[in-house]
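fyi for ur records
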Amino acid sequence: MTKKPLIISTDPGIDDVAAMTISLFSKELDVKMIVPTWGNVPLKYTLQNTLNLEKFLGTQVPVVVGANQPLVAPAISAASVHGKTGIAGFELPEADNSLIKPGLASTIMYEEIMNSPEKVTLMGIGPLTDYALLLKQYPDVIENIEEFVIMGGNIGRGNHSPLAEYNIAGDPEAASVVFNSGVLVKVAPLEIGNKAHVTQAQMTEIKKHGKVGDMLYSMFSNIHEPDGDTRIKIFDPTAVGIMLHPEFFTMRKARVDIELTGRFTYGATSMDFMKEDTNALIATDVDVEKFASWFIDSVEVAEQGQK
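which gave:
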């Protein structure tokens, strides 16, 4: 089986850790590099979290230092949800910088994508700053990008502001660049993350899956949702889900535009399911039982696959 070449842009973040762990050990994916960016917490934490996770898992995927701020607006923070360093609840081993590949993220991604014999998929599970810089600096890169797969945006209400979801609100200008690139964007929006969850009983089952299960159990037990929801919602892994198991989801074509000027709507995602000039596929529903079962199985695969 030919593995899908993948680049991950991420801002770990507890649910980012879960998405990266699943991706790194997936039999269907070949992760070429991980590009930590600012997002849930500042870059100094997301970078170290990525390095520490790889040390914990025993993986050797190159890490490329991404953007430390949005293109235009001031940076926002989700430290109140994920903890000061982004991954409250579990102490990962401290890693050195040996996995860091030096250079500008956009240039390194461009070289990897253009030298790949197969088109490369770009997964964004944080603000899309680095992908926007890639597209602006190297517009010809789109010829060898298979698709963007992101967790972000919202059909209805937001979680950062009344009408904006956090990952898009973090860098609306960057998101606008990605959605207007001409490359298909597959989207797991906020609503899917709110619906896709595991129960407390399933989380207890995950805890039994060795050190990987214990890590994720400990981290997810320390997420503090602003609305007080006690369900264990699995946001970023939904992006991996729509990439590998689209049959779990209802996907609809839409025209997506990002609000860049509104006083109260800045960062909002306009998803128009009526227009003909579509640029995205939006997950509008998910089979929760199938998703949860896959998530649990993926944790076990990661546990068994450590080097």
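The beta strands are 4-10, 29-36, 120-124, 145-151, 185-188, 197-198, 232-233, 249-258, 269-272, 280-286. thats all i got for now
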